[in-house]
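#dry-run=false #mode=assembly
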Amino acid sequence: MVTIYDVAKMAGVSPATVSRVFGGQTPVAQAKAQAVREAAAKLEFQPNGNARRLRTSSSDIIAMIVPDVANPYFTEMTRAVEDAARAVGYSVILCNTDDEVDREQDYLRMATREPVAGIIIAPNCQSRLSWAIERRVPVVCVDRRAPHDTCDSVVFDNFSAALGATHMLYDAGYERLGAIIGPEFVETSLPRLQGWTQAVLERTGSQPDPALIKQALQTSEAEGERLALELLSGTEPPDAIFVGNNPLATGALRVLFRKELLPPTIGLVSFGGPPQALFTYPGIIVTHLPQREIGTMAADMLLERINGCTEPARSIVLPVSMNTPCEALVVPVGAQVA
Amino acid sequence: MVTIYDVAKMAGVSPATVSRVFGGQTPVAQAKAQAVREAAAKLEFQPNGNARRLRTSSSDIIAMIVPDVANPYFTEMTRAVEDAARAVGYSVILCNTDDEVDREQDYLRMATREPVAGIIIAPNCQSRLSWAIERRVPVVCVDRRAPHDTCDSVVFDNFSAALGATHMLYDAGYERLGAIIGPEFVETSLPRLQGWTQAVLERTGSQPDPALIKQALQTSEAEGERLALELLSGTEPPDAIFVGNNPLATGALRVLFRKELLPPTIGLVSFGGPPQALFTYPGIIVTHLPQREIGTMAADMLLERINGCTEPARSIVLPVSMNTPCEALVVPVGAQVA
DNA sequence: TTGCGACGTCGTAAATGGTGACCATGCCAA
DNA sequence: TTGGCATGGTCACCATTTACGACGTCGCAA
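#status=ok
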């Protein structure tokens, strides 16, 4: 391994000068700086990140803690964070929790041990972010707010988005709407349910039938299947379903498919959708959520904190654009199940 | 920051003993170990990763360098790598290159500077992996082989998969097949074209019309649109198109959509597909590629290298399962464009 | 001309937190 | 007594940053 000592020797200066040339704080005479740079280039010197970080007790790594990168919603957000981080020389460590609190805790511990410069996390309601916060590691929450608003967060207006999407189902002609919503421990589940409820209220004039509301115990395709089956096997099944997130919607679609009840036979809202969705259609409504914007904004806010911003916790609520609110995968009745 | 010295003082032992309790190599007497653990717990001590890594010049970070995590093919692969890494206490740094060699070089430099324990990379043909290899950082290539087979790689059989998928288009009744293939600098483009060519040869008895083959200059949806337009505006346009990768296929679909030539009017193979694809249908064929398996296997191989394996470079070619070779998004003609 | 302070530059050495080779101690069995 | 082993302390080391001080030069005033 080639160190600053090797470079210093070749350039005929002290190691401190080499450090100064690369650190760039204190001034170095032109000639010496040039000699150092030439020597470094010749030796293909790369400063050792561990030594540098140990000495300065700083870091240029951001931990991105999400339930699952394979969920396109979080994939895009992660990509946006990485773009913003790279632009200022930071790297991103990827952490998948599957919404398990223990995994999340492990990652938070890792983040302080590593240590990282900051954390972007989609927490759930049982998260204990205090571990990181007490250790003065900046934290920004995305998609969901921090349990007690103890740190910055970037979310969008779930209530309004759910309200709007549900109205679209009514606009498409459906009348008896069911809802499959995310688990209790995910903060966004409630406002989405409330948005749906409000729309039902506005359109039917009465409270929704409780039999038409199913809350998931976890976020998975299997759970989506289970709840869709429950909904459809009721005595008065719905003619359209609002599904509170991506994986649940995929599971629900699978059930509709098997039962040959595909949209537009039964309407479906998938709240948050894969970027591969290309087409509008009244049958499946895939809402367009501001994942990228959340990621970019969260990264910017985190970098501000890393650079010493000490404002009290900020909470950003992004609007959901309703002019292109939906895109849809369109599936004809009767196609074969894979 | 609480250090081993603090713990040592509280536990009444030397710092070395604290280190040993956590390192776990040399034995420590029960009583002392207990005291150390209690002190550490009370102080909420976390060993400083930078100091540890500096001293041992080891690392527990893997760099995952892919063109774009937002491409579902690489998303799933990345998730698989993270799962395998986490299982043995490693973390994954995420790097998106957009297939730009400069970005890739930056990341490779970062990987040696950081330094990371190993690299998993989807290289392109201009990649200079030697930078890492010369510095003895283990590298495993995924999806594509290393330019000169200088390191381990995990790929799948692109020729056979393309051959099989193309046959499926003929089986579905299409007769004049076009091809949109990935850029020259991506190693998989050629075997996929060859598989397609071979299938055309087998089914028509003659070489394909060169006018029906379009090679992309980059991997993007816009490029897919451009080439699909070119193909369809020829004098004898194809009645089905084989598209060599995900983003190109999405672009091509968009064009078919605008022209109201959606499958099954015109057939389409999307080579590698979003996991959200649920349904089979002869119109759009989305091949099922072993992304997860590639990720898992690459992580395992990399960990072997990190643990000192010195076998010559190995190249794994995974089979593509042809019993469930295809899944499809199904899109009826005439739906609205988003 | 000389003296002196300011300034720009650069080297020395002391951290930074943890590891591990080496060594000292004490105990037990041969 | 001696040899071996389990245990645990000391200290050098990892690569870098940075406080501190030294050195040379220059300008300005005495």
